[in-house]
Every structure is written in C-alpha cells, then in structure tokens.
TrEMBL record:
Top-level taxon in the UniProt lineage: Eukaryota
GO cellular component: membrane
Database matches in InterPro entries: CRAL-TRIO_dom, CRAL-TRIO_dom_sf, CRAL/TRIO_N_dom, CRAL/TRIO_N_dom_sf
Segments traversing the membrane: none
Annotated protein name in UniProt: Retinaldehyde-binding protein 1
Lineage: Eukaryota, Metazoa, Ecdysozoa, Arthropoda, Hexapoda
GO MF entry, a single one: phosphatidylinositol bisphosphate binding
Positions of the CRAL-TRIO domain: 96-258
Underlying gene: LOC107216991
Length: 286
C-alpha cells in the first residue's frame, strides 16, 4: 500500500459524520464560506487564500462558525510570526536528513477504525536529540500537519497521536525543554486547523514523570481530557484504538511496522508547491 495524500471529496458516510459533529450542511457551508471570505477581505493585517476549499480547512474544525474560523486563522498567522525563526520559508528539503535517516515521526499507512489518521512519535530510544533536535522535531510536525489538513477525510474525522516513550532516558528528557513544550502545546491548542481527537502515551518508563511535569502547566482541560496513559498495557490502548487497525508493535492484528518516515517523505515533496503557498500566508508584511 503506497503512501498518498487523500484529497478526494468526502463520501456519504463521512458527510453524515460532518453533519452530526460539525453542522456541515450545504447552507452552513455556503454561508460560512461567504462570511469568512468577507471577514478576510475586510482585514488589512491578514493574507490568506480565499478559495472555497481552503476556507473549509478552517471552517470544519470550528463547526462552520465563521467568526471562530477567522479567529483561528488569526492565531495561525500570529503563531507563524512568533515562531518565524523556525517556520519562515520552511520547506521539506530543509529537514530531508531528519525524514530520511531518523525514525522519530511516522504515520501509519492505514487509518484507525474510525477513519482517523494516526501519527506515531517515537520519543524514546529511537530518538537521538544530537541528530534530530527538538526544534527539528517540531518542524517535522509542522510539515506533516500541512499535508494532513489538505485531506478532506482528515479534516472531518481528525487525527490520533501515539507517543511511544519506549527506552526513554535522560538524553531525551533534557531535549524536551519547557520552551519546546510550550511551543508544541500552543501550536496544538491554538494554531492547528485539525481536529486532534486523542493522544495516547504508551510504553512510558518511570522517568516519563519528569517529562510530564514539564508539559503539564501548558495543557488545558480540553486537551487533557483527550490524553490517555497506557504504559505497556496494550489492552488499555485497544479500548480506544481497535487492534484490527493497529500493527503488531501495539498488540494489533496488522503486520509489524516495516516502514519509516523515509517511505512517505516523497509525498511531502510532491506537495512542496502547497508548502510554498502556505509559507506566503499569515500576517501581511508592511
């Protein structure tokens, strides 16, 4: 099964989900797009694409309330500006070595039993911070989110994250600084136009408590309610993610993972025109 971005329109099943969870009717969609476009055209500080499909990226996670989508776009622009040192003109080639040579961030080939994309972060022994810094890790997350938000299916069904801390040592703990934690959590909670449905922490050793203390001050109630800690108990993970859609590595019925980010890096490269386009959006330059 080859990696590809699924940019096809949503089918009847996903349309039904969009209606029940996101208020997505033809009328709400049409009105939302028109109102959001007007808000953008009347604002002299923001520059974004105003085509229908692009505006829907922001309207879906905001349940088609244009004011909320506009506020999200503002936060996205402000986040990009505040983190320009890491994000300005960021292109996939800039992190080619991290994608090709490390196996820190992976995306499961198939979706989970609810049709959600599954992002896998190997934050334990697989991660050597001397080769891939925490800043690079964040840049990889950012590039992946740019790809995911282009998928209509993912816009509706959302994303699940598995954070695997197997073999975590002080080397990784020291790399997960409060600065990194605050940046990552601000991004997730304020400036990411995707529905983050669940975060699963697995195989974490006792030393993980030190990491958790760094992250805790920045986690708000909504995200906190979507975080689950399983340790080595895969049966606990399976209460949320059906084993029929999980690889053997996590007690699932699918074959063990035999691919890395190197295998899906070409998909990111194929979409570099969209990345370049995204880089041009945000606060207008005076």
């Amino acid at each position: 099964m080859a990696f590809r971005l699924e940019e096809d329109p949503i089918g009847p099943e996903t349309q039904a989900l969009a209606l029940s969870e996101l208020r997505e009717t033809e009328e709400n969609k049409k009105n939302g797009i028109e109102a959001l476009r007007k808000l953008l055209e009347g604002d002299k500080t923001l520059f974004f694409n105003t085509e229908d499909d692009f505006l829907v990226i922001f309207l879906r996670p905001c349940k088609f309330y244009p004011d909320s989508a506009f506020a999200l776009m503002k936060r996205v622009a402000e986040f990009k500006e505040k983190n320009a040192a890491l994000l300005e003109n960021l292109m996939p080639q800039d992190e080619r070595a991290a994608f090709i040579e490390s196996n820190v961030v992976n995306v499961l080939k198939g979706r989970d039993h609810k049709g959600r994309r599954v992002l896998l972060v190997n934050a334990g022994k697989s991660w050597d911070p001397s080769k891939v810094s925490a800043d690079q890790l964040f840049r990889i997350f950012y590039l992946i989110h740019e790809a995911a938000m282009r998928e209509p299916e993912t816009q509706v069904r959302g994303v699940v994250v598995i954070m695997d801390f197997d073999g975590l040592t002080m080397k990784q703990v020291l790399a997960l600084s409060p600065t990194f934690s605050m940046r990552l959590l601000t991004f997730i909670q304020d400036a990411m136009p995707l529905r983050l449905k669940e975060v699963h922490i697995v195989k974490q050793p006792f030393i993980f408590n030190m990491v958790w203390k760094i992250f805790t001050p920045f986690i708000r109630e909504k995200l906190n309610s979507r975080m689950y800690f399983h340790g080595s108990k895969m049966a606990s993970l399976h209460k949320h993610l059906d084993p029929s859609h999980l690889p053997e590595n996590y007690g699932g019925k699918l074959p063990a993972i035999d691919y890395t980010s190197a295998d899906w890096y070409p998909v990111i490269i194929e979409n570099e025109d969209k990345v370049k386009e995204w880089n041009s959006y945000g606060l207008r330059k005076n």
